[in-house]
Specification:
Strand content: 25-35%
Distance between the termini: 85 Å
Radius of gyration: 38 Å
Number of strands: 40
Structural class: alpha/beta
Strand order of the largest sheet: 7-11-14-17-20-23-25-27-29-32-35-38
Shape: rod-shaped
Number of domains: 4
Low-confidence stretches: none
Number of helices: 10
């Protein structure tokens, strides 16, 4: 018998076990006889299938069958190393539950897990390197729930998981790197719910996640570099809700997927967040805070949801030669933009992105255009700022009308005329002071309209334009007189050469007021353009 004391990081004893010592010769004999391998509660030192093959004269790659392995609560002490290289786990269940591994190298290289279920639950690994390279999991399920890896590197490189259920729930990875690159997962579910990474590099590069649901909810990824680049999520859903990323960069570049990526309420650190050239059905970042650069120059995404996010740096959605940034819908509802949003009005098709939101209210669309307007101003994109401002005012006007009528249907009596007046004066006349040429065109239209009134009104009413300027002015033809009088009235010159008689005085007064207004309107629009 041997006593094993398990301590925490502070050296305090957490658990004490009394284990039965089992020599390797006995274990190897059970393997020879294809017996059920029961190592529960046993102490085994330097277990090695590589040495077993050498002793039995087997080739290095010959599979060694381990039937119904039960190592629950066992302790594999490591001095030279422990390996299950080219092991073939068969039977109903393979269990390493609550198993302890000492400090040193541990290898499951090219192991095949073919038992109905495989479990490493509550297992504790030592500080050595842990090698799961090229494992082939054909069990219906495999579980690493509540497992604790030591401070060494953990490698699942090119592992094949065809299990219907793969779980790493509440698994604690140590300070070493965690590498899953080139691994493949089947169409079952994969869960890392509440897993914790210790700060080393975490790589899921070029991993094939299959068609199943991928669950990274409430994961603490630590401060290391997180790499999901070139991963293939195919179709399904990848959920990172309420996870925490540290100060390392997070890379989802070149991901090929038809999945929804849910990052709602994720806490991002100071590292960059990269989705360059990524394809996905949806990217959702609701309630996230971006503290550093966010690269959303994707290849093709159905919807990007940035609702209620807080932006403290740059969010980049500008198209490039390599990435056309094809997005069908973009939501900015409730965004607090303390940084800069880089997006091109024309190339990104911003108007269509906002208008295509099926669930946004008129008020919410208005606020999103305002966010864009302020961002364009901060980045010096003034032409795009004007476009965003126009649509902000248009949707604001519609939202005000909708609010007034919904509050009291009787308000429609005055709300619609007021809306029409604002639309006519502010929108159609000068596009909210963003187009001085539009104002000049409106000046010409109004001037011509009043000139025609002065010309034809005397034909239907007892009114005319009189003069006190002598025979020359009195002999002016009616057309010239009407247009000349309209000009001096519109521009409020007031020579006194002509004056209206009769009802024409009312129209003259109106034209004088309109002229002053439009000249002021033009001055505002012109100065606004020049100063920028």
């Amino acid at each position: 018998m041997v006593e094993v004391s398990i301590t925490d990081l502070t050296g305090r004893q957490r658990e004490r076990r009394i284990l039965q010592v089992l020599d390797l010769a006995t274990v190897y004999k059970q393997i020879d006889e294809h017996e059920t391998l029961n190592l529960e509660g046993c102490y085994i030192k330097d277990f090695s299938l590589s040495l077993y093959r050498q002793d039995r004269g087997l080739a290095e790659t010959d599979l060694v069958e381990l039937r119904d392995l039960n190592a629950q609560g066992a302790y594999f002490d490591i001095e030279k190393g422990v390996d299950f290289v080219h092991a073939k786990f068969t039977g109903q269940k393979t269990s390493f539950d609550q198993c302890l591994f000492g400090d040193g190298p541990l290898s499951f290289y090219h192991a095949k897990f073919e038992a109905d279920s495989t479990t490493f639950e509550a297992c504790q690994f030592g500080s050595g390197k842990i090698n799961f390279h090229y494992i082939d999991v054909k069990s219906k399920s495999i579980s690493f729930n509540n497992t604790s890896f030591g401070s060494g590197d953990v490698e699942f490189i090119s592992a094949s998981f065809s299990a219907q259920k793969v779980t790493f729930k509440e698994t604690h990875f140590g300070e070493g790197s965690v590498d899953f690159h080139y691994s493949t997962f089947g169409d079952g579910s994969l869960s890392f719910d509440k897993a914790r990474f210790g700060g080393g590099e975490v790589s899921f590069k070029r991993v094939d996640f299959g068609h199943g649901k991928v669950d990274f909810k409430r994961v603490d990824f630590g401060d290391g570099f997180i790499d999901f680049s070139e991963a293939d999520f195919r179709s399904g859903k990848a959920v990172f809700r309420s996870s925490q990323f540290g100060n390392g960069d997070v890379n989802f570049s070149d991901v090929a997927s038809e999945s929804d990526f849910i990052f709602d309420n994720v806490e991002f650190g100071q590292g960059k967040l990269l989705f360059f050239n990524t394809t996905a059905r949806k990217l959702s970042f609701q309630l996230c805070q971006f503290n550093s650069y966010v690269d959303l120059r994707v290849d093709r995404v159905g919807k990007i949801d940035l609702s209620h996010t807080i932006v403290r740096d740059i969010v980049d959605i500008m198209p490039t030669d390599r990435c056309p940034v094809k997005i069908q819908s973009l939501e900015l509802k409730g965004m607090r933009n303390l940084g800069n949003l880089y997006i091109d009005w024309r190339e990104n098709g911003v108007l269509k992105l906002i208008q295509s939101q099926p669930d946004s209210t008129l008020k919410q669309k208005s606020e999103q255009f305002l966010i864009l307007k302020e961002s364009y101003n901060a980045t010096g994109r003034y032409a795009d700022e004007d476009k965003a401002y126009i649509w902000y005012k248009r949707y604001e006007l519609k939202a005000d009308l909708q609010y007034a009528v919904e509050r009291d249907p009787k308000n429609a009596v005055w709300a619609y005329p007021v809306m029409f007046t604002k639309w006519l004066i502010f929108d159609k006349v000068g596009l909210y002071a963003t187009e001085p040429t539009r104002v000049l065109f409106s000046v010409g239209v109004v001037y011509s309209l009043f000139s025609l009134i002065y010309l034809f009104l005397p034909l239907v009413a007892d009114t005319y334009i009189d003069t006190g300027g002598g025979e020359v002015l009195a002999g002016m033809n009616d057309v010239a007189k009407a247009f000349y009088y309209s000009a001096i009235t519109f521009l409020t010159i007031g020579y006194g050469e002509f004056y209206p008689v009769g009802i024409m005085r009312v129209f003259a007064s109106i034209e004088g007021y309109v002229g002053v207004f439009l000249m002021g309107y033009f001055s505002v629009a012109f100065v606004r353009k020049v100063l920028r």
